């Protein structure tokens, strides 16, 4: 028998809507949901390779408890009840000694379906919920929140109608979200300009109308100069600025020294290019999108950089504007009712998360700061965190071994919930296997935007191994811990019905396309109606949030340190490749076959001086770690920088296809996890120098 199921891809966090074909209980085909604009049947390589994840023998198949020393990879198979009881006992012991808040959960991300795992920490009475955002998008999030009062996922982009897109190292055609890439492609077909700024010529650079090579870590300087020109030449959208911006005189005063001439020295981008970009953006305004990006934990000034991008959009009047930035509408704003929250049924703990105990000078929001969590585990400050759950995240795959050891030394319990044998699972005390996204249903999600919608991830086939859906795992942990009342549901339908209560939407309504829109047409506000979600209702350059947290409104730019190239020292930068998702797909049978290992990009002139030829093995080192990788000698990278694709060199022998192949950039990040970005306390992963020599 042949059936078709609408669901949501789980091969990366873009969560594209998909249609899955099932023949006699086997998944035979996956494609983009044909009913969703921007998808129209298309899928990326990783999305198609979901089939290889589903039928992979080298993934987690049953719950396990560690039997040998941590990191020995010795585990025994246990029943689900044994695993749940073991966890409950260990948590109880830790909480008896250190209090409820000693439990923390480190999540990949809140995302569409993320409310579920939050029930674990809250159900166990702890405030300590953390996610990976600090190493990814948090700066953008905090910048939007402080300036507009909106969170990052609440700001969308009207690519189709834009005239000019500016991407700062946002390698959109390779670090993919299918919809976004398709929509940017459509914008280009419609004649939009694409200005792309990067230290190297990425895939996206090759599609740009203008590529500007920038000195690493100086995008903030570039933006200050753009703001300078826009203010000096009155190139801004006066109507928008007069109505909405609070803090223009202070901005004008701050920006005075940052001329294009100054910025040329910082960035290496000629003064005339900067002036010309400012003027061109003004001509194209208000239909412009300066994109603050996705992965924004690169440099120490990343929060202020993200703010500068949003300020540029505001000056150019592109916010809540056709062809610009579009604010998400709540269900209420479109006359509908939202999903009922599972989390809000559990009383919020009164105690404070670790970073909230640590005074002022930085911003935070709904999820804690990961670097503060690491510190709490390692040093017991501001209080000890002894039990850690890690969900859909592999933090140990991207950090130096010394940091892993220090974290492990601080923990009494480490539990992972994963589909693969992750690096973190290798060190865990209990490993709980999650069913893959094709084998499970999740809670309903809310797709935010100008036309909000409910979206369903629906099981396509039954689990092949002894794995469970996320909600079943959460239920098991809470029940064993005496907190079963917070998950009283017996089936996913029970949960969906509770979520949908009072919304007028029924489970069957998802059958047709997998989604239910909450209004007919996208809702946009006119400037007369527009009110931002800041306390003043305006774009607050003098941000109330920042004032409350004693975070300075402006950051004076700091010239990035220069590596000693003559000594073989370079700044290490890294990024995503189209056919892999971070570390999780390295062992995927199809994707591993396409690209099994990475290489090190190095500037051709410098390589020649060092006697390194294309394809030569080089040794890269940082602190006491060093590893070997093949050199890719190219003119298309800034001389101060070496680049590699992220996530290679899987260290878990269980995954035989990818074991030991390539080099892991995370091991080269000595000290990176002690470095907190200005104002946001996020990571700054590109502030690291490595030594390179011919092997
Ligand atoms: N060194 C270094 N560190 C980085 C980065 C970097 O480039 N280099 N990038 C940062 C950024 S931007 C990000 S987003 C993060 C990403 O880092 P991670 O989130 O760790 O990377 P992923 O490879 O996406 O895998 C996360 C884990 O989720 C598991 N997983 C996959 N599907 C499922 C599922 O359905 N259920 C469950 N329970 N688990 C699943 C995978 O097996 C994997 O172990 O890393 C951040 N940290
Ligand atoms: N195929 C695929 N797609 C993905 C992912 C994946 O793992 N695989 N992951 C998803 C996730 S979680 C994220 S966060 C996004 C990340 O999306 P992006 O941020 O677009 O992706 P990265 O590949 O991390 O790109 C980093 C780029 O920054 C450049 N760069 C380095 N230093 C500088 C600098 O100083 N200035 C400028 N302007 N550029 C600089 C690097 O050369 C590199 O090209 O991708 C998402 N999409
Ligand atoms: S971008 Fe690719 S891997 Fe990511 S959700 Fe979409 S189809 Fe899946
Ligand atoms: Mo990310």
UniProtKB/TrEMBL annotation:
Main localisation: other
Sample GO molecular function, one term: oxidoreductase activity
Entries under InterPro entries matching the protein: Asp_de-COase-like_dom_sf (IPR009010), MoPterin_dinucl-bd_dom (IPR006657), Mopterin_OxRdtase (IPR006656), Mopterin_OxRdtase_4Fe-4S_dom (IPR006963), Mopterin_OxRdtase_prok_CS (IPR006655)
Annotated localization: Cell envelope
Chain ranges of the 4Fe-4S Mo/W bis-MGD-type domain: 2-58
Recorded GO CC terms: cell envelope
Family: Belongs to the prokaryotic molybdopterin-containing oxidoreductase family.
Stated name of the protein: Molybdopterin-dependent oxidoreductase
Protein's organism: Thermodesulfovibrio obliviosus
């Amino acid at each position: 028998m042949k059936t078709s199921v609408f669901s949501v891809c789980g091969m990366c966090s873009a969560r594209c809507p998909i249609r899955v074909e099932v023949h006699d209980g086997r998944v035979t085909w996956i494609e983009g949901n044909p009913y969703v604009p921007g998808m129209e049947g298309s899928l990326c390589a990783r999305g198609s390779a979901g089939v290889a994840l589903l039928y992979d023998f080298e993934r987690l198949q049953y719950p396990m408890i560690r039997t040998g020393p941590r990191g020995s990879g010795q585990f025994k198979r246990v029943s689900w009840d044994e695993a749940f009881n073991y966890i409950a006992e260990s948590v109880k012991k830790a909480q008896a000694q250190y209090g409820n808040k000693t439990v923390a959960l480190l999540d990949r991300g809140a995302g569409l379906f993320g409310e579920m795992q939050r029930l674990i920490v809250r159900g166990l009475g702890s405030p300590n919920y953390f996610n990976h955002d600090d190493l990814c998008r948090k700066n953008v999030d905090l910048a939007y929140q402080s300036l507009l009062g909106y969170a990052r996922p609440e700001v969308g982009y009207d690519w189709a109608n834009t005239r000019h897109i500016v991407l700062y190292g946002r390698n959109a055609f390779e670090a993919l979200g299918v919809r976004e890439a398709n929509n940017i492609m459509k914008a280009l077909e419609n004649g939009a300009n694409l200005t792309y700024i990067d230290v190297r010529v990425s895939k996206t650079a090759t599609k740009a109308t203008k590529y500007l090579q920038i000195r690493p870590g100086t995008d903030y300087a570039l933006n200050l100069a753009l703001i300078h020109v826009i203010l000096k030449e009155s190139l801004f959208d006066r109507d928008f600025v007069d109505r909405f911006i609070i803090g223009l005189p202070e901005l004008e005063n701050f920006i005075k020294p940052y001329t294009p001439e100054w910025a040329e020295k910082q960035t290496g981008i000629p003064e005339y290019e900067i002036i010309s970009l400012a003027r061109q953006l003004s001509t194209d305004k208000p239909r412009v999108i300066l994109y603050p990006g996705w992965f924004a934990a690169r440099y120490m000034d990343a929060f202020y950089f993200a703010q500068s991008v949003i300020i540029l959009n505001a000056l150019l009047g592109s916010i809540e504007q056709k062809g610009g930035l579009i604010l998400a509408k709540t269900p209420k704003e479109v006359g509908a009712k939202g999903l009922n929250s599972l989390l809000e049924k559990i009383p919020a703990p009164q105690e404070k998360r670790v970073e909230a105990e640590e005074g002022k000078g930085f911003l935070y929001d709904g999820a804690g700061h990961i670097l503060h969590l690491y510190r709490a585990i390692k040093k017991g400050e501001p209080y000890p965190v002894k039990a850690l759950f890690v969900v859909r995240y592999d933090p140990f795959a991207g950090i130096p071994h010394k940091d892993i050891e220090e974290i492990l030394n601080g923990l009494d319990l480490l539990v992972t919930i994963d589909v693969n044998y992750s690096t973190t699972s290798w060190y865990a005390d209990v490993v709980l296997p999650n069913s893959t996204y094709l084998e499970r249903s999740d809670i309903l999600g809310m797709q935010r935007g100008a036309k909000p919608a409910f979206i369903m991830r629906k099981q396509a086939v039954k689990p092949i191994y002894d794995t469970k859906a996320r909600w079943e795992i959460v239920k098991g942990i809470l029940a064993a811990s005496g907190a079963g009342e917070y998950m009283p549901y017996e089936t996913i339908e029970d949960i969906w019905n509770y979520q949908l209560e009072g919304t007028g939407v029924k489970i069957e309504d998802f059958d047709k396309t997998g989604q239910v829109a909450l209004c007919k047409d996208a809702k946009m506000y006119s400037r007369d109606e527009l009110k931002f979600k800041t306390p003043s209702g305006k774009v607050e350059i003098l941000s109330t949030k920042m004032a409350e947290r004693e975070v300075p409104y402006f950051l004076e730019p700091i010239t990035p340190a220069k590596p000693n190239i003559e000594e073989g020292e370079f700044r290490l930068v890294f990024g995503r490749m189209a056919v892999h998702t971070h570390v999780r797909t390295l062992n995927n049978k199809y994707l591993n076959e396409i690209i099994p290992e990475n290489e090190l990009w190095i500037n051709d002139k410098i390589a020649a001086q060092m006697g390194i030829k294309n394809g030569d093995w080089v040794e890269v080192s940082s602190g006491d770690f060093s590893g070997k990788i093949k050199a890719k000698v190219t003119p298309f990278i800034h001389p101060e920088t070496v680049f590699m694709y992220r996530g290679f060199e899987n260290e878990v022998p269980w995954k035989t296809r990818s074991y030991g192949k390539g080099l892991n950039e995370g091991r080269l990040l000595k000290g990176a996890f002690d470095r907190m970005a200005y104002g946001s306390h996020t990571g700054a992963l590109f502030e690291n120098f490595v030594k390179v020599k011919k092997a």
